[in-house]
């Protein structure tokens, strides 16, 4: 019950609580005042009535004494009746005591003992007072004993044959208390009226005093509610000169300060991440989300900077799309700047997958990609057929795509393609500014790592032919051997030397010689598989590392290359050249436990091919190692 009352009170506003409290206190005060007043007036009325009864009893005693002296005692009944006619005096009755009855007789009928109270007072000589209920009003009864006294004039013992202290009789007097009750009620009514009026004025006064507090509290509640929703433009209307007015003005200044500064911060951050804040958005929530995004972006950027390779960065970006933004279907394309082609580096989180959503033309003609060509975000959720290179079919008619170009040194160096259902499209449109922020912050790192890869690649490739050089072989040798041993497979090493190449340089010049070498490099690259490695070993000497399988051997490739070179026709400004090539073939680990031992074996076989007449291939035989070079 108490909890219920407390819950009801806690749900009330301050005005209602104050009014209820004043009403409760006033009501309690009125009840207590009425109770105390009634109790006080009752005691006062009883005391007053007791004094009146004693006075009337004394008057009756004196009257009866004078009547006895003057010989008019037989008229005592009339005397008592006249007393009864006095206002407020209901009845007076005199009862003779036993000694008086014995001396003078029983007297009048009304002077007989009428009730036990008279008899008790007669015996004890102690007065008795009480309130008895009348028909309409309360009646006060007093029964007073007349005790014989040997002093005074006249002396009771002169007429009565009694001893001093004997009870001569008792007088019972009934007084109406109506007028006392009315006076008491009237007085109490006036006091209660005064208290009620005072309480009303007090309530009005307190309500007036508390009204600014209530207005300010309601204003604060309204302003805070709006601030919680991100709107700091709310103000408190109260402008008094008291403390509430000061609070209102201070809070208004605070809200204005927050509105201006937080709005400016939010605007600056939104510009930083290229996010357009909606008009009715929650300023606090939006700003918090943008700040959290910047923090996450900074952490992401640091992680990207600590990645060792570009491929690690691409994989980290793919994990970001999957885990942070919930993108399930996407592709990351690397633009080969200067080569006008694009290659997929991660597809749906897998770096080994091929491109799924773009036509093959885009891979070899980068300008066919609209995002690459324009440098703008391509959003098919806004324009379904904006890109003609997307694989439009019945299977993809409910899909849309967003292609995000990422710039490296002013050119598009990477493209992120997000593919989703048209239902999910608006979600990714909303997330687009945040995704672009991550990509933009990681872009310099990706560019730097790609540049380092390019520089490193340039040190591992021959500048003239574009083939891997001898340094690449030295760095890659350990990995190649370890992979071969782990797979329990084999390698074929083909050492090749262009026949009579020195004659070309001496006769036609080094420019023609360079043309011949580039033509040879192209021919070699066309004859091998993508898994094979073509290396310019030095000068006119080349090497092919063939990762063999059961269907393809080093000798087969050697013959294929020999025939292709023999048919090769090299055009130059002075005419046309045809050249031949000599090839030495050795196998790992068949011809040596160490890789460089096998290279040496292939070199011996090449020497044997040269010595045997050129334009041929020779497979290594251990006997070659026994012959002098």
Model description:
The protein folds into four domains: 14-182, Beta-Lactamase (2-Layer Sandwich), CATH 3.30.450; 230-306, no CATH class; 310-455, Beta-Lactamase; 470-625, Alpha-Beta Plaits. 26% of the residues are buried. It has helices at residues 2-11, 14-70, 76-84, 98-104, 116-124, 156-159, 178-228, 243-272, 283-306, 310-324, 360-364, 370-374, 425-459, 470-487, 501-508, 510-527, 554-567, 595-611, and strands at residues 89-96, 128-133, 138-147, 167-176, 330-336, 341-347, 378-379, 399-408, 411-421, 491-498, 533-538, 541-547, 569-572, 575-578, 581-588, 617-619. It is α+β, with helices and mostly antiparallel strands and 629 residues long. It is built from 18 helices and 16 strands. The mean pLDDT is 81.
Secondary structure layout:
Blueprint: H1 2-11, H2 14-70, H3 76-84, E1 89-96, H4 98-104, H5 116-124, E2 128-133, E3 138-147, H6 156-159, E4 167-176, H7 178-228, H8 243-272, H9 283-306, H10 310-324, E5 330-336, E6 341-347, H11 360-364, H12 370-374, E7 378-379, E8 399-408, E9 411-421, H13 425-459, H14 470-487, E10 491-498, H15 501-508, H16 510-527, E11 533-538, E12 541-547, H17 554-567, E13 569-572, E14 575-578, E15 581-588, H18 595-611, E16 617-619
Parallel strand pairs: 15-16
Antiparallel strand pairs: 1-4, 2-3, 3-4, 5-6, 5-9, 7-8, 8-9, 10-12, 10-15, 11-12, 13-14
Please give a handful of descriptors for the protein shown.
single chain; 629 residues; alpha+beta; Beta-Lactamase; 4 domains; five-stranded antiparallel sheet; five-stranded mixed sheet; 53% helix; rod-shaped
């Amino acid at each position: 019950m108490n909890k219920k009352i407390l819950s009801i009170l806690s749900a009330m506003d301050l005005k209602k609580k104050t009014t209820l409290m004043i009403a409760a206190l006033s009501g309690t005060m009125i009840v207590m005042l009425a109770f105390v007043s009634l109790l006080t007036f009752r005691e006062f009325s009883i005391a007053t009535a007791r004094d009146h009864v004693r006075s009337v009893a004394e008057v009756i005693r004196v009257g009866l004494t004078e009547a006895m002296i003057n010989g008019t005692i037989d008229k005592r009944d009339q005397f008592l009746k006249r007393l009864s006619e006095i206002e407020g005096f209901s009845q007076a009755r005199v009862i003779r005591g036993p000694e008086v009855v014995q001396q003078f007789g029983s007297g009048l009928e009304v002077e007989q003992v009428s009730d036990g109270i008279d008899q008790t007072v007669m015996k004890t000589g102690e007065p008795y007072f009480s309130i008895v209920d009348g028909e309409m009003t309360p009646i006060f009864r007093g029964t007073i004993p007349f005790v014989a006294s040997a002093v005074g004039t006249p002396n009771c013992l002169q007429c009565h044959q009694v001893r001093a202290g004997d009870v001569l009789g008792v007088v019972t007097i009934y007084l109406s208390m109506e007028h006392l009750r009315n006076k008491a009620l009237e007085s109490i009514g006036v006091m209660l009226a005064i208290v009620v009026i005072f309480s009303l004025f007090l309530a009005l006064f307190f309500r007036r005093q508390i009204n600014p507090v209530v207005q300010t509290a309601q204003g604060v509640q309204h302003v805070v509610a709006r601030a919680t929703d991100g709107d700091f433009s709310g103000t408190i209307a109260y402008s008094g000169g008291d403390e509430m007015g000061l609070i209102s003005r201070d809070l208004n200044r605070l809200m204005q300060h927050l509105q201006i500064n937080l709005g400016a911060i939010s605007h600056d951050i939104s510009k930083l991440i290229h996010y357009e804040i909606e008009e009715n958005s929650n300023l606090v929530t939006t700003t918090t989300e943008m700040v959290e995004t910047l923090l996450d972006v900074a952490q992401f950027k640091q992680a990207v900077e600590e990645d060792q390779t570009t491929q690690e960065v691409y994989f980290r970006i793919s994990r970001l799309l999957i885990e942070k933004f919930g993108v399930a279907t996407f592709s990351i394309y690397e633009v080969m700047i200067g080569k006008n082609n694009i290659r997929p580096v991660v597809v749906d989180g897998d770096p080994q997958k091929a491109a799924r959503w773009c036509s093959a033309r885009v891979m070899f003609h980068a300008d066919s990609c609209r995002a690459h060509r324009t440098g703008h975000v391509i959003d098919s959720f806004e324009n379904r057929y904006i890109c003609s290179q997307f694989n439009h079919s019945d299977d993809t008619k409910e899909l849309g795509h967003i292609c995000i170009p990422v710039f490296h040194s002013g050119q598009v160096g990477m493209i992120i393609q997000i593919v989703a259902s048209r239902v999910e499209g608006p979600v990714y449109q909303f997330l687009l500014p945040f995704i672009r922020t991550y990509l933009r912050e990681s872009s310099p790192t990706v560019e730097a790592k790609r540049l380092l890869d390019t520089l490193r690649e340039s040190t591992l490739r021959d500048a003239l032919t574009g083939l891997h050089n001898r340094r690449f072989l030295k760095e890659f040798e350990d990995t190649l051997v370890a992979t071969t041993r782990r797979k329990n497979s084999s390698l074929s090493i083909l050492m090749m030397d262009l026949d009579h190449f020195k004659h070309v340089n001496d006769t036609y010049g080094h420019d023609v010689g360079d043309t011949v070498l580039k033509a040879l490099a192209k021919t070699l690259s066309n004859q091998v598989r993508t898994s094979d490695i073509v290396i310019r070993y030095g000068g006119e000497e080349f090497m092919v590392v063939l990762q063999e399988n059961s269907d393809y051997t080093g000798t087969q490739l050697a013959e294929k290359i020999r025939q292709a070179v023999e048919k090769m026709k090299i055009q130059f400004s002075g005419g046309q050249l045809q050249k031949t090539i000599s090839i030495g073939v050795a196998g790992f680990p068949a011809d040596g436990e160490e890789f460089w031992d096998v290279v040496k074996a292939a070199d011996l076989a090449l020497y044997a091919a040269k010595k045997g007449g050129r334009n041929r291939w020779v497979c290594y035989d251990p006997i070659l190692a026994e012959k002098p070079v």
